[in-house]
Design goal:
Layout: E1 3-7, H1 11-14, H2 16-29, E2 34-38, H3 42-49, E3 54-59, H4 61-74, E4 78-82, H5 88-92, H6 98-108, E5 111-119, E6 122-124, E7 127-130, H7 132-143, H8 154-162, E8 169-173, E9 176-182, E10 184-189, E11 211-217, H9 223-231, E12 242-246, E13 248-253, E14 259-262, E15 265-269, E16 272-284
Parallel strand pairs: 1-2, 1-3, 3-4
Antiparallel strand pairs: 5-6, 5-16, 7-10, 7-14, 8-9, 8-13, 10-11, 11-12, 13-16, 14-15
Length: 290
């Protein structure tokens, strides 16, 4: 089985290249031809993936996002060797156990097709959001230099609390009004996984052809207490939380543009149109517990 190992050289605090080399050695020992390619070279990535059987991605969720946008249309199944901060994609599909887990998955060859989504044409697999979390991600993106850790978010979180960008939002789902001129956090989820295991859209399913939309009305000062409640399994059902599902979502903001994030990466500002892409990405399943 021809395998491409696509790696982000700065992932895992600079260990991406080493993990990729370990993956190549382990797969080669099993008789699988392997090609290494850096994710920053999209042309080389596309050429390597064309005709390949599997793509193992060494990096975080942002790296998976970038590679899946190329691998999806080619029908090449993707697998994450998690070396990022959250690694939500690997958590969702049982991709644990390091290179041994990857080798077992390649040998087993269990492939399934999942939905992806696009925000103004930008592919995402897990979720998009506008509100406090997107503001934090956007601030971090402006100062980020190389790999990050959870501690890297401390400054942007404090800055967003002190100077929030939370204009009233208008949200439309499948052409109908969902939220009108309300401040808060909106999550458009293709998958239940979310940072810090908060998982506000716990019923989201990447196989149902729908996006789960969750709106949490709140002021910036309420975000941290809400996160604690959600982590304890309480905040998801707070009074005022709105939920729906749909295929086309539009988010607009009143007065100023609100930051947007997709799979933990800054993705521009509102207004934005989000659409589901049913069964558009092939995934090589792992065998770890979700």
């Amino acid at each position: 089985m021809n395998v491409v190992v696509a790696y982000n050289p700065i992932a895992g605090r600079g260990l991406g290249a080493r993990v990729a080399a370990e993956a190549r050695a382990a797969l080669t020992a099993l008789g699988h031809p392997v090609r290494l390619v850096e994710t920053g070279d999209e042309g080389a990535l596309r050429r390597s993936l064309d005709g390949s059987a599997v793509c193992a991605i060494v990096g975080g969720d942002g790296t998976v996002n970038l590679v899946a946008a190329v691998a999806g249309p080619l029908g090449v199944p993707v697998y994450q060797l998690p070396t990022g901060t959250e690694n939500l994609f690997s958590r969702a599909f049982g991709m644990g156990g390091g290179t041994s887990g990857l080798c077992r998955a390649v040998e087993a060859g269990r492939v399934e097709w999942i939905d992806s989504a696009a925000a103004d044409g930008r592919t995402f697999l897990l979720m998009a959001s506008a509100g406090f979390d997107a503001g934090v991600v956007e601030r971090l993106s402006r100062t980020r230099r190389g790999s990050i850790s959870h501690l890297s978010y401390a400054g942007p979180v404090l800055a967003e609390l002190m100077g929030p960008r939370d204009p009233p939002l208008d949200i439309t789902v499948d052409g109908g009004p969902f939220v009108r001129r309300a401040r808060g956090l909106v999550v458009v989820a293709n998958c239940r996984q979310y940072a810090l295991r908060l998982d506000p859209a716990r019923d989201a399913d990447p196989r149902d052809g729908l996006l789960d939309v969750v709106f949490v009305p709140m002021e910036p000062a309420e975000i941290i207490p809400w996160m604690f409640r959600l982590r304890l399994g309480l905040g998801a059902h707070d009074n005022g939380v709105l939920r729906t599902r749909g295929r086309q979502i539009r988010i607009e903001s009143e007065g100023v543009a609100a930051p947007l994030q997709c799979d933990g990466e800054a993705a521009g500002f509102t207004p934005v149109d989000i659409v589901i892409r049913p069964r558009s990405v092939a995934v090589l399943r792992g065998d770890a517990t979700r």
